[in-house]
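Entry type: protein chain
Record version: 2
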Amino acid sequence: QLLKMDSEPIQINNYVSGSTSEEKILFEYLKSNVVNFKSFFLKRNLRKKEIKVHRIDASIENSLPLLMVLATINSQDSIITKVDFTKDRVNKQYNIMRRIFTKLNIDLATYEREVFVSPSKVQIKKQVDCEGDPYVAMAISILALLSSVAIVIRNVDCVFDINANFFSDLKRYGALVEFIHD
């Protein structure tokens, strides 16, 4: 039998009732966590159980801030995979986003090369700082558009270095963008 989990296949060969205890333990784990075995191997029409977590690949450079924002609007918890914390830029962006998410009361956790984000809505108007990172600034701008309350984002002028029309494009699509100079 060949089972597919995400894109990686798991193969179960020659399972019989006389299998060793280790094989039975593995089979019971797969049976309870991966596949709906209603028909076992008689009809050979195995189906995956419903996925309870969204998995998002962060292998594209500078995608982490936006993926973290998009994860907040999912209906279920999200796992952002392939996060390379050994890269200074990724680590810096993650830490800026972590500080912003903490301030906005959005649940976030990391484990090895994965970031776990729970769905959340910003409920209270807050001021956050993108710390001069244009990708964080654009991602938080998107979060502000998706929120029911305003989010004040400091140091967004860095966006103009990589996309001079970003805010004017948002305005053209109907977003209310206001610049406050202090």
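Comment: The first strand starts at residue 2 and ends at 5.
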